[in-house]
Amino acid sequence: MAGWEGDGGCVLRSGAMRIHFHGAAGEVTGSLHLVEAAGRRILLDCGMIQGSPEQEARNAEPFSFDPASIDALVLSHAHIDHIGRVPLLVKRGFRGPIFAQAATADLMPIMLLDAASLAENDAERANRRRANGVPEIVPLYLREDVVNAVEQVRKIDYDTRTTIAPGIDITFRDAGHILGSCIVELWADGKKLVFSGDLGPKGTPILRDPTPIAQADLVLMESTYGDRNHRERLETIQELGEIFARAHAEKGNVLIPAFAVGRSQELLYWFAQNYDAWELSRWHIFLDSPMAAKVIGVYERHTELFDEQARAVWQRKPLPFKLPNLHISESVDDSMAINRFEGGAIIIAGSGMANGGRIVHHLKHNLGRRNAHVVFPGYQAQGTLGRRLVDGARWVRIHGKDYRVNAQRHTIGGLSAHADQQGLLAWYGQFEGAPPVALVHGEDKAREALAGEIHERYGREVFLARPGRFIDA
Ligand code: ZN
Q1: b (16+ CB within 10 A) / e for 209-231
Q2: CA–centroid distance, residue 177 to ligand 1 (Å)
Q3: How far away, in angstroms, is 411 Cα from ligand 1 center?
Q4: CB-proximal residues (5 Å) to ion ligand 1
Q5: In the chain, is it the N or the C terminus that has fewer CB atoms within a 10 Å radius of its CB?
């Protein structure tokens, strides 16, 4: 039985496992949980806070613990809201091992080098506009900090129980969210904690389904979509085809903000599957993301993680990552050349929430066009440009300038990389005896709805994690 919530500052009784919440506790980004057990301190994830500039400024604040006091870091998956502050942790004194699934470890340098470049560019831009006397903005971390952090990584395969510190074992299980994504089982002090990481929905293309786990003394579960159910994936796919048909008739472009890991590859998978039905040969398809291109390389190195269907797809033509009219733009010049297309282009670019990256430039060029279509296949967090567009803003401010939005906007819910409410309840339902559960990685509305459902179905009180609070297993 879990001892319930408390504020920080209490002394841990011996033989207990205590989890402190430092991030993604009441919001969906900045995943960061500290486990105290067996006399050790283990971090689960060390993610970046993403959202408005004010929210993102919090990334630079000191950690609410001493990084040098941490014995090991365990990463659930390579999304930046789960690993984005790792270089900062190392820069500020963390010297322990970083445990990551093999594909996560391969994705990590790609993701973090990109984050470092973005931080350097942002700082440079802000400094150019800086008024006299205002102190210079320093980037959160540099590329060399990423190189240092990556040196501390130790790869672990799925389903392999590993001792990460004296008295503490973990096993990674496939979470079906992105390539290499993990559910973390952690044993210490005779207790077992299960951290869901981000859970994928069943039937995600390319990936296997999330692994059911039978036993836990405490579950930390994500709750991003705790208050809603996704549309059927096939309906969504159909809708995507219809949007392409409409955009073609209107001679417009289609812009798709997509994360470089997972969503971009999944889209290409659907394009290959529907290549003839959607008459995709009449389009120029751009994957405008050097990062997504590198990620494709990681997918190709880890085909052992694909599900059976994907293995079959990879035996046929066209291959998802080698569509005949797919242009992968790596250089800035290649990216800028896309601007000359006033129609006939499908542009997939990051970031997935349009709060940075090349998609922002394409939005600047296309938002004013009535025949342009912007398709949002993923979650848009509060404070991001993507969220403002999804919420129907008529004007948006980008890089200090206002843009009128005439483009047509589409939210296609069924491609989410996250399990929906039914999926989360089904995964939780596979535990024996409805173990205590703390909800992380969800905005309050979503968590409260999920907590209500869990209480109703399983009679279990649910703890809503908050920064600075803790729970004992
Ligand atoms: Zn994720």
Answers
A1: bbbebeebbbbbbbbbbbbeebb
A2: 7
A3: 19
A4: 79, 198
A5: N
Distance CA 20, CA 1 (A): 17
For residues 147 and 378, give the distance between their C-alpha atoms in angstroms, rounded to a whole number. Answer: 30
* Tokens coding 338: 């896309």
Kindly tell me the sign of the dihedral angle through the C-alpha atoms of 277, 283, 284, 285: negative
Hey, CA dihedral for 138, 139, 142, 148, is it positive or negative? Answer: positive
Tokens of 329: 């733009």
pLDDT tens per residue, range 229-270: 988 888 999 999 999 999 999 999 999 999 888 889 999 999
> Which residue, chain included where needed, has tokens 């219809």?
242
Parallel, antiparallel, or unpaired for β 345-349 and 254-257? parallel
pLDDT in tens, 164-213: 999 999 999 999 999 999 999 999 999 999 999 999 999 889 999 999 99
- The model's pTM is 0.87
**From the CB of residue 245, how many other CB atoms can be counted at a distance below 10 Å?**
12
Query: Dihedral sign, CA of 126, 28, 385, 344?
Result: positive
Q: At what angle do helices 143-150 and 102-128 cross, to 10 degrees?
A: 160
What count of residues does the chain have? 473
Ligand 1 midpoint to CA 198 (Å): 5
129 Cα: distance to centroid of ligand 1 (angstroms): 33
- Rounded Cα distance, 419 and 423, in Å: 5
Q: Which residues have C-beta within 8 Å of that of residue 405, sequence separation ≥ 6?
A: 367, 368, 389, 393, 394, 395, 396
DSSP assignment of 237-286 equals HHHHHHHHHHHHHTT--EEEE--TTTHHHHHHHHHHHTTTTTTGGGSEEE
The residue assigned the tokens 């060029």 is: 365
107: left (phi over 0), alpha (psi -120 to 50) or beta: alpha
Q: What is the per-residue pLDDT across 404-455, written as a single tens digit (0 to 9) for each?
A: 999 999 998 778 889 999 999 999 999 999 999 999 988 899 999 999 999 9
Sheet holding 326-328, edge to edge: 326-328, 284-287, 345-349, 254-257, 373-376, 408-411
